[in-house]
Amino acid sequence: MEQSEAVNRIEVRSGPETSASEAFERWEAQVSEAYVPLAVSPKPSGRFLGYIEHASYGDLELSIAGSTEQKIRRTERLIARTNGEYLLASIPTIGNARLFQDGREADIGPGGIVFYDSTRPYRWDFYEQFEQVVVQVPLSRLRDRYGVSNLDIPTATTFSRGTTPGVVGRFFRNVALLQSSDPAGAALLAEPGMDLLAAAVVAAAGGIPRDQSADVLNRQRVLAFMRSHCADPDLGVDRIAEGCRMSRRTLYRVFGEFEGGPGTVLRRMRIERACDLLRNAPQLPLSAVAKAAGFLTERSFYRSFRLEMGTTPGAFRALA
């Protein structure tokens, strides 16, 4: 994992030459640049202080961020302005706050960890002086390498220090505290960071029985690969096994609970893609829908569609 050249520290404060409103405007810009575009509003305290200590380790971003009272919002409009998709984890070190996402709310303080997803709206309320370690990674890396999808992430749910996510949170807290005094040591410790974060998310999503964990994780990885490539008409069992670096035998074993195996799952993914196109692109000819969904011929598309949906693509579009 690549080490960042240096720890970057940003500090914004109000004072004799900078009003609280001016400081807050600068802070909003700095926070949005360090993480994702955000809307920040102050609490009426008459003063403001905010700081971020940030370092990068390949795809993993690790920072310590602190401030006085504030509210932070991630809106649909701001989401539309963002190119990347990220998973973020907050590990508080000072103070208490509340996170809102996906209809849930989490009260969080020192010793806990909470996850949130940049692709959906969220809100943070900081009631007092607050400091946290923030871990940020691309969701695409979690999907492609570990099979962790957005729906697997238990957002706005607090995990205490005694849980698996809590233990991983303490690890990242210690690495972040080491960044300034021993950057080389922090980089060395951060090397397995992506693996640890993925393990924390999987554990937070409900845990996996030990004797099934390898197959479950492999299945998630294979499903992620298939979703990404299902529009390729040449994708088949052999290509899936090759792309996921496993044998056909292993591939069929990890899909043991799916009737029909990976071929049936792939067909259903293609039908789901076709249904989306039929709903949202009414001007697209059915032959183009078939091709875009990954079917070699229009005839195989009609046959598969009727088998899965009980009707024809044309009838489905007329009712959509």
What does this structure look like?
The protein is of the alpha+beta class. It has 2 domains: 8-204, Jelly Rolls (Sandwich), CATH 2.60.120.10; 213-319, Arc Repressor Mutant, subunit A. Helices cover 44% and strands 22% of the residues. The protein is built from 13 helices and 11 strands. The protein has a 6-stranded antiparallel β-sheet with strand order 1-3-4-11-6-9, sandwiched between helices. Helix 4 runs antiparallel to helix 6 (193-204) and helix 10 (261-280) packs across helix 11. The longest helix is centred in the last third of the chain and has 20 residues, at 261-280.
Q: Would you summarize the structure shown here?
A:
The protein is an alpha+beta fold and 320 residues long.
Descriptive tags:
320 residues, alpha+beta, Jelly Rolls, Arc Repressor Mutant, subunit A, 6-stranded antiparallel β-sheet, 13 helices, disordered N terminus
